[in-house]
Design goal:
The structure is a single chain. The chain has 340 residues and is of the alpha+beta class. Helix content is 30%, strand content 18%. The chain contains 9 helices and 14 strands. It has helices at residues 22-25, 31-45, 58-72, 76-80, 127-130, 147-172, 255-260, 312-323, 325-339, and strands at 12-13, 16-20, 48-52, 90-92, 114-118, 187-196, 210-213, 219-223, 230-233, 239-241, 249-252, 270-272, 280-282, 285-290. Helix 2 (31-45) packs across helix 6. The protein is globular. It starts with 11 loop residues before the first strand and ends with a helix.
C-alpha cells in the first residue's frame, strides 16, 4: 500500500505525487483530465512523480536489474570491446563522465559509476546506420546468452508506458490529448544500465555516484531500486532520499521537457551517493521525441517562447561533448586534425 497524506486530493509518497493509472486503463470517464491535473501539480511543484498500475511486471524489472548485474560482472576487457561511441551507444568505463552542462552547483569529480547504453535496435542496413547519422547507430551487444532478447523486451515495455503517458502530459498543458502523438513517431530512447560500487567512507565530499544534475530527457522512467542512494532536491532546497514504494515507478522530466514547456515544468536536480556498502545497479530509461521533430516551446498564451525551437540531435550533441569524456576527446582530436 502506497503511503498517502490528506493534503489536497493528491496521493503522496514522502512529498512525491503518486499517479494511479488504473482508472485510465479501465477507461473510466474523466480519468485523463484528473490525471492531467495531478501531473501538472507534480511538474510545477516537485518535478518527480510515482506511477502505479503501470502494466510493467515486477518479473520483467527484476530480470532487467539482473541483466545489468550480469553485464557489469564481465571482465573489463569484454566490456571495453563495446566502448561507447559517438552515438552514445556502448560501455562507458568507471569515472568516464563528469557532470558539467546539467550540473547543479560546482562541478564535482568524475562520476563514480560505470554504465552501458542501448538505444532503439536499428538493423545494420537501416538508412540512418548506413548514413552514420549521429545517435542513430546500431547497438553494441555483449556475448551473453539471452541478454539482447531480455533488454529489447524491457525497452519495449518502457517505451509502451512512456507513449501511454503522453495524453496525460498533453492534458496537463491544456492541449488536446493527441497533441504529442506526431512528435513521438519512433521516439528516441536510451536505456542506461549503471553500476555504482560502494563508495569508501574516506571518499571526498565532492565525489558522487552521479553528481547533482538535471536529466536531459523529456521523460525518465526509473524502476525502483532495492539499494538506496538516489535523492532529489525539492523546490524548497531540501534533499529528499527517494522512497521506493512497492509496485511503483519513479518518473521525472529533464531539460528537454522544461525547454519544450517554456520553463513551466520543472527539471528537478537529483544525485546518487552509494554509501550502502553494497553494489548498486540502476536501469533508467530516457525517452525523447522523434529524432527529426522540431520542438517549439509550448507557451501558456501561444506567444513566442523564451528559447528557440530545437531538435534532439542539436541538443544532445552539445551535451555529450561537454559531459562525456570520450566525446570531448573525439572533439579535441578533430580540432587537432583540422589544424594539422
Amino acid at each position: 500500500m502506497l503511503p498517502a497524506d490528506t493534503q489536497g486530493s493528491f496521493a503522496m509518497a514522502d512529498s512525491i505525487p503518486v499517479l494511479d493509472l488504473a482508472p485510465l486503463r479501465a477507461g473510466m470517464p474523466g480519468a485523463l483530465d484528473i490525471l492531467g491535473e495531478e501531473l501538472r501539480h507534480a511538474f510545477t511543484e516537485v518535478g518527480f512523480y510515482f506511477v502505479r498500475n503501470h502494466g510493467i511486471s515486477e518479473a520483467l524489472l527484476d530480470q532487467t536489474f539482473a541483466e545489468a548485474a550480469r553485464f557489469h560482472a564481465q571482465p573489463l576487457d569484454a566490456k571495453l570491446s563495446l566502448k561507447i561511441n559517438e552515438h552514445n551507444i556502448g560501455y562507458m568505463p568507471m569515472r568516464g563522465a563528469t557532470t558539467r552542462v546539467n550540473a547543479v552547483g560546482e562541478v564535482a569529480l568524475p562520476n563514480a559509476n560505470e554504465a552501458v547504453f542501448f538505444k532503439r535496435d536499428l538493423p545494420a542496413d537501416h538508412p540512418d546506420v548506413l548514413g552514420q547519422v549521429r545517435f542513430r547507430g546500431a547497438n553494441q551487444w555483449p556475448d551473453l546468452p539471452g541478454f539482447r532478447t531480455n533488454i529489447l523486451q524491457a525497452c519495449a515495455a518502457f517505451e509502451g508506458l512512456g507513449l501511454s503517458l503522453l495524453p496525460i502530459y498533453a492534458r496537463a498543458l491544456g492541449l488536446p490529448a493527441d497533441y504529442f502523438a506526431p512528435f513521438f513517431q519512433e521516439p528516441m530512447f536510451t536505456l542506461r544500465m549503471s553500476h555504482y560500487p560502494p563508495q569508501e567512507p574516506t571518499a571526498p565530499e565532492n565525489e558522487y555516484g552521479i553528481a547533482p544534475h538535471m536529466d536531459t530527457s523529456f521523460m525518465t522512467i526509473l524502476a525502483q531500486n532495492k539499494v538506496p542512494g538516489l535523492s532529489l532536491r525539492l523546490p524548497d532546497g531540501r534533499w529528499l532520499d527517494a522512497p521506493a514504494p512497492e509496485g511503483a515507478l519513479l518518473i521525472n522530466g529533464g531539460m528537454m521537457l522544461r525547454r519544450w514547456t517554456d520553463n513551466r515544468f520543472l527539471a528537478t536536480p537529483h544525485r546518487v551517493i552509494n554509501r550502502s556498502g553494497r553494489e548498486r545497479y540502476a536501469i533508467p530509461f530516457f525517452m525523447d521525441a522523434n529524432y527529426r521533430a522540431v520542438m517549439k516551446p509550448i507557451t501558456a498564451d501561444g506567444a513566442a517562447g523564451r528559447m528557440e525551437p530545437i531538435t534532439y540531435p542539436d541538443f544532445m550533441t552539445g551535451y555529450q561533448r561537454a559531459n562525456f569524456h570520450h566525446a570531448a576527446e573525439k572533439s579535441e582530436e578533430k580540432v587537432q586534425l583540422q589544424g594539422a
